[in-house]
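Quick one, tokens below. Sequence please?
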């Protein structure tokens, strides 16, 4: 007690030692004790550090010389990432660090964020990067990493790099100090946990579900199904004690299958089935694919109806053939289900875009999906249908009723 909190600084000290030392000084000025880990491969580290590159290589099961002899820099970096990740997790396990900060370009960002993605949610993570103005999903993944754009190259100290590095150090300081004074707020609630998937186009439905379930004493976590959101939801189901799963938005499967941008991989939605968690599936947001600006959408998906969501995002209507394939994929996913699984189909519309006010409405497609699903699913899987739209209050009530029946053991094929 009374000792200063420690922060891990991860950098390639042969090229970024000036910047790393500046961050170290910034942290020390805020009463944070820095621990520098050098994960550089080439060149030399010109200063003493707490964790040397030789130690990082050893943690990866190699010598530094062996890693330096690897001709492809990406493979060599992967080896150093392995060692750095093990050492960082050892420090966390022994409660020797309270936060982590990294800095660098593409290689340094890959290094720093790879280590950060191995650390738990809630643990303070800051990455100062030249890559932060680009697509950050490969770096952030499903973890709460704060990425701070360096604006200019991190090559020496100047009026820009000093300002950005200082702000990054202050951000990490605020996270560390805030956790130490408000840790009681971070303790998980002892409530039954229910994850729900959604997008803005089904939020009216999910808002009602969340309101009703929270009144019943449940802890609700909603996930925005934009790719990383669905992956994070599946990880939560795998790692946490989950009472029930409500999949309102299966959109990421459609994007994976047919070339949309919100791709969460081929296993999206299967985590609850594999773990044996009771699940309600709704084909929400499967009526469209997501792609970029409208000009791009029309080139990639000619002759399809489109909805311009904003300048960067266009929704493209899915075809009946695609929905049939989706139904078969979902049925295959459920073949080995050992606990109750139900499908609830809103025949009045699958999303806010699938309505009379939108050019994406396709009434026939809903029935085609329903028929394909019913003909493909094992008979033990319950299928219910409603003539309501997915965002109608009556549909949310039906989902809750189905959930209650499943939990009470009332589970029969209603086809």
């Amino acid at each position: 007690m009374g000792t200063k909190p420690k922060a891990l600084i991860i950098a390639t000290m042969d090229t970024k030692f000036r910047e790393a030392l500046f961050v170290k000084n910034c942290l020390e000025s805020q009463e944070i004790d820095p621990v520098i880990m050098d994960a550089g491969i080439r060149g030399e580290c010109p200063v003493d550090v707490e964790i040397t590159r030789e130690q990082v290589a050893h943690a990866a099961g190699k010598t530094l010389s062996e890693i330096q002899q690897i001709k492809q820099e990406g493979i060599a970096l992967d080896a150093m990432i392995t060692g750095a990740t093990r050492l960082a997790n050892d420090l966390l396990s022994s409660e020797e660090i309270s936060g982590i900060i990294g800095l660098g370009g593409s290689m340094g960002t890959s290094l720093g964020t790879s280590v950060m993605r191995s650390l738990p949610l809630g643990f303070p993570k800051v990455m100062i990067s030249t890559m932060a103005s680009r697509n950050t999903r490969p770096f952030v993944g499903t973890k709460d990493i704060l990425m701070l754009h360096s604006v200019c190259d991190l090559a020496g100290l100047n009026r820009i790099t000093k300002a950005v590095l200082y702000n990054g150090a202050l951000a990490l300081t605020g996270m560390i100090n805030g956790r130490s004074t408000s840790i009681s707020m971070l303790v998980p609630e002892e409530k039954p946990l229910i994850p729900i998937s959604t997008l803005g186009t089904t939020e009216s439905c999910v808002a009602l579900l969340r309101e009703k379930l929270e009144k019943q004493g449940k802890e609700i976590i909603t996930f925005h199904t934009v790719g990383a959101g669905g992956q994070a939801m599946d990880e939560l189901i795998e790692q946490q004690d989950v009472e029930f799963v409500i999949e309102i938005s299966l959109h990421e499967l459609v994007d994976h299958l047919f070339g949309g941008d919100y791709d969460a991989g081929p296993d999206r939605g299967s985590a609850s089935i594999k773990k044996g968690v009771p699940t309600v599936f709704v084909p929400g947001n499967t009526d469209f694919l997501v792609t970029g600006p409208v000009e791009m959408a029309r080139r990639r998906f000619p002759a399809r109806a489109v909805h311009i969501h904003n300048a960067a995002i266009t929704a493209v209507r899915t075809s009946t053939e695609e929905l049939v394939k989706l139904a078969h994929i979902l049925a295959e996913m459920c073949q080995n289900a050992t606990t109750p699984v139900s499908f609830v189909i809103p025949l009045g519309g699958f999303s806010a875009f699938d309505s009379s006010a939108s050019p994406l409405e396709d009434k026939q497609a809903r029935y085609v999906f329903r028929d394909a699903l019913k003909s493909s699913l094992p008979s033990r899987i319950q299928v219910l249908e409603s003539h309501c739209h997915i965002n109608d209050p009556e549909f949310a009530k039906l989902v809750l009723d189905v959930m209650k029946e499943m939990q009470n053991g009332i589970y029969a094929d209603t086809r």
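The chain has 15 helices and 14 strands. The domain at 193-407 is CATH 3.40.50.12030 (Rossmann fold).
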